[in-house]
Amino acid sequence: MGDKPKSPSKSPSPPAADSSAEPVSDPLRLQAAEEDAEAGSSDLDSIFGESNSSSTTSINSTILEYRRLHGRTYQNFKDAEYWGPNDDRQNEGLDMAHHMMYVAFNNKLHLAPLENPQKVLDLGTGTGIWAIDFADQHPSAEVIGTDLSPIQPVWVPPNCKFELDNCEDYPWTYPDDTFDYIHIRGLVGCVRDWERLYAECLRCLKPGGWLEQQEFALPIAGNDAPLPDDCVWHDWGAVFREAGRKMGRSFEVTDHWEGWLRGAGFTGTLHTSSVRLPIGGWAADSRWKEVGLFNRLSLEQGLEGFATYICTQVLGWRPDEVTVLLAKVRQAIKNPSYHAYYPLKTVYTQKPLASE
């Protein structure tokens, strides 16, 4: 708790998140490019050149009868609560965000110091892209991805499988001491009782196994100077803070996860790190420019999906009010003067060995 975002400085090849990093007190800023970094389409073009579903759980017709709201589809798994759409438009944005994080972590899928993991669980796997990539990199490991929606591809590595499951259904069906590694990502605003979920992670990890979580954090801020008082990014953050309070599912997980992990029984060192994710292509360094451009693409792709359910169903807004907010956010995404960013934070810790 209390760790501030660190990011590349003016050196040409700055490190990504340090896998052993502790909270920092003097974060370095990203260096902005001298030219107009949002000269936009040419940068995007430099990155881009010219489904079916599967699950190890039987998929009945009710689960596949997705709920519909304002032209978007949402999961329909038992009594599970989740605010994000599960349609192709949103899923494409999730895959863009996966690449963004992979580049931000210097082409790493994890920061925990894993040694030949044999059994891996990816909670809230989404499109399954992280689980598939991890299975490719670790062919001797069995990788299980769980999610509320059967949106994962059919053709996957032979050591990867997907299961329909709600991570808030306790206790989990996995026996004690099952996994060498449990990976969590992108579950802000999704879990009511994190301490209970972490306790299940602790139970299901083998002695010496690792739990790692990566989450986006608030606020969205200016890299070089504070954002203007009338900037819509302030309103955007306030929307999700208030929605989290009303749902009882916080979007500010990273502010509390250390206390929740301790409360769940994790006694080992909590390794934390944070990097700044630029919004748009304003960073001077080529790697962070790529991160920023994919961040912009992911946000533009998922923007409506992020806000529709939250604003209309949780906060009670009218659709026209949501439209106005989204128009302002789209303008802010493209504004080259803001040099806006938000933190990507990581925590990982180890289950004690049986002898400890």
Automatic annotation (TrEMBL):
Pfam families: Methyltransf_23. Keywords: Methyltransferase, Transferase. Residues 1-57 are annotated as: Disordered. Transmembrane segments: none annotated. One of its GO terms (molecular function) is methyltransferase activity. InterPro entries: SAM-dependent_MTases_sf. Residues 16-27, 39-57 have a biased composition (Low complexity). It comes from the Eukaryota. GO terms for biological process: methylation. Signal peptide: none annotated. The keyword Signal does not apply. The keyword Methyltransferase applies. Gene3D superfamilies: Vaccinia Virus protein VP39. Belongs to the methyltransferase superfamily. LaeA methyltransferase family. This is S-adenosyl-L-methionine-dependent methyltransferase.
